Amino acid sequence: MAKTVAQSYDKTILFIKISSAVCGANVLNPAYRMNILTWIVIVCINLYYVFTGYTLYVNIYVEKDWPNVLQVLCYLGSAVQGYCKLLNAIHNKESLRFLDQELREIYLEYDQKHADYRYCLKTTIDRANKFIKFMIIFQILISGSLIGVAPFYRLVFNQRIFVMQFLLPGVDPSTEYGYFVMNCMHCICIIFGSFGNFAADLFFFVVVSHVPMFKDILTCKFHDLNDLLEEEVADNENNNNNNRIKDVREDFRSLLIDIFKWHQRYLRFIAIVKENYFWVLLVEMGTVALSLASTLFCLILGTWPGGQSYLAYCFIMLYIYCGLGTVVEVTNDGFIDSCYTEIIWYKLPVSQRKMLRMMLMMAQNTDGLTIGSVIPLSMNTGLQLTKTIYTMTMMLINFLE
């Protein structure tokens, strides 16, 4: 039996639930409670903070190695991101379940309509699944390259370098045993940290990738409305019976009201996404900027052989988030364009033109995703942030010189 788009969506959400459950944060499950896995993850992140603090103390007060301090701070940003996403998911679990249920209801409702609606749904879920596959491959490649640099340098150059830079109290990194133990611990942190951030990002990516679907379905509704308008005009010209004209007008009025309700549904959806991911976006952008500046500085000084992979990871994550913000901006503009170009508005009765104008005014004032309610999350912001990071790095280099 052919699989419906609603079943495809359920399969995608099931994958997200399994990934989140491994991290102890399957908040999409209505029966979710903080469990032993949740506390293990929280304890491990806090231990990483302790080890990082100890390493900073050694580098600043004992060895006075300032370039190494920045290298330690590079990975700290990813840990802060993961912790913030975990706490945010637990705190806002009801809202995240609402977003999931809202999307599922849309799939179930519009999967029963004509082919244009089903095409919109299929395009959306295929886009979300392709993005998830890309993220899986991306995380595997980055994690593998971060871990592989240590054995590569040991085998090729006979040089001992560490995967990460935090120290373990009581373990001497200058000994062969200490080198092995610390790198094993670093590899474990890379694997679990990478998977944790991947699992935390999945639902946000899937939710935002569904934002264009609202505009696509609105376009389908406008086309259906145009068909009814043309039918009404044709009936009037052919002097068809009054009952038929009355039925067409009733269908037309019902569909127009449904369009207004759909736009209100979209506004509510975007408002919930913005509210629940406010801190995630703020922390993500702030820590990515810190990690990028620190990593770029270390690479320029030549103190971190494996920094290229982490720099690539930070840049790609920066522009993925900024790209998703741009998706919301483009969708908001698409609602405005649809009100002008996808509906035969000049054939509407005067009273209904006024309602459409009100919807257009609301569409023109719809805000996109922001960083701290101050800076819009967009590709332009990502470009400006990249320029700022480069400037900060040059200032750090001049300071050390």
TrEMBL record:
<feature type="transmembrane region" description="Helical">
    <location>
        <begin position="131"/>
        <end position="157"/>
    </location>
</feature>
<feature type="transmembrane region" description="Helical">
    <location>
        <begin position="310"/>
        <end position="328"/>
    </location>
</feature>
<keyword id="KW-0716">Sensory transduction</keyword>
<keyword id="KW-1003">Cell membrane</keyword>
<feature type="transmembrane region" description="Helical">
    <location>
        <begin position="36"/>
        <end position="57"/>
    </location>
</feature>
<keyword id="KW-0472">Membrane</keyword>
<keyword id="KW-0807">Transducer</keyword>
<keyword id="KW-0812">Transmembrane</keyword>
<keyword id="KW-0675">Receptor</keyword>
<feature type="transmembrane region" description="Helical">
    <location>
        <begin position="12"/>
        <end position="29"/>
    </location>
</feature>
<dbReference type="InterPro" id="IPR004117">
    <property type="entry name" value="7tm6_olfct_rcpt"/>
</dbReference>
<protein>
    <recommendedName>
        <fullName>Odorant receptor</fullName>
    </recommendedName>
</protein>
<keyword id="KW-1133">Transmembrane helix</keyword>
<dbReference type="Pfam" id="PF02949">
    <property type="entry name" value="7tm_6"/>
</dbReference>
<comment type="similarity">
    <text>Belongs to the insect chemoreceptor superfamily. Heteromeric odorant receptor channel (TC 1.A.69) family.</text>
</comment>
<feature type="transmembrane region" description="Helical">
    <location>
        <begin position="277"/>
        <end position="304"/>
    </location>
</feature>
<keyword id="KW-0552">Olfaction</keyword>
<feature type="transmembrane region" description="Helical">
    <location>
        <begin position="177"/>
        <end position="208"/>
    </location>
</feature>
